[in-house]
């Protein structure tokens, strides 16, 4: 049977007067948690920039609608006859004028380039202004004869159809692990679910299948992927008679301790929701955590993340 204990519902306990040791523990814990929070914010801000640096989309030529790239690198000449009336825009104002003589004008046109290999790209743009076009910024082509390909292009998405690209990237993020499933320790201390205060940062490698849909008047996107990484951080530990029952002298009064956690994890991203499973360890930092039943013992953690831009799509 699982039992649920929730130390999050109560703040850090105030020690009894004269208990200098407990006061010092609580003070150090608060200072450490504050420093960690600042560190997490910095890492998360850094991670937003690094997403671009480590970001890579992949175009697959053998998948639907990914064998042709359209570049605006071609030109076409048009002969306009004398006496024709044309409309043009100057300074944001449309004006009409009549041509006094024959005139040749040159316009840019889309040129189709066949994609023969799985190109890499850094950024993608798909909006409802042009749901039939998936704009792509490719990685730089280093071959001199391919230099003309180092421009933005687009892939055509037919009506009510879709294009699927793969995306891989490394990501920094802040994490919390609200629940930990702790295995049984002996015949009298069975498995239990604890709601611990765990905050930290993680780095993960992500591999997604990103789908871009043309709904005629609207552009849609959905994401399905997996990720794997490692998290580090701090955990608040509640020490009482029950949680120190395996020590030589179980605690009569309740107090708090601080532990460092390390936890590898894997996750699944589906329609904007990310479910992550962790397998980690809590390692005591304050001396009193050495009396904790679960010090340096493994646990299974569960987490949930939400991507607002793709949720439910």
Q: Could you please describe the fold and organization of this structure?
A:
It is a single chain. The protein has 313 residues and is mostly beta strands. It is 11% helix and 50% strand. The chain folds into 2 domains: 198 residues, no CATH class; 47 residues, no CATH class. Strands 1-12-11-17-16-15-14-13-10-2-7-8-9-3-6 form a 15-stranded mixed beta sheet, with helices on one face. The chain has a two-stranded antiparallel ribbon with strand order 4-5. The radius of gyration is 30 Å and the shape is elongated. The protein starts with a strand and ends in a 7-residue tail after the last strand. 22% of the residues are buried. The N terminus is likely disordered.
Overall shape = elongated
What oligomeric arrangement do these chains adopt?
single chain
Strand order of the main beta sheet, please?
1-12-11-17-16-15-14-13-10-2-7-8-9-3-6
Domains (count): 2
Radius of gyration: 30 Å
For the secondary structure, the number of strands is 17
What's the end-to-end separation, in Å? Answer: 37 Å
Largest sheet: 15 strands, mixed
How does the helix and strand content classify structurally? mainly beta
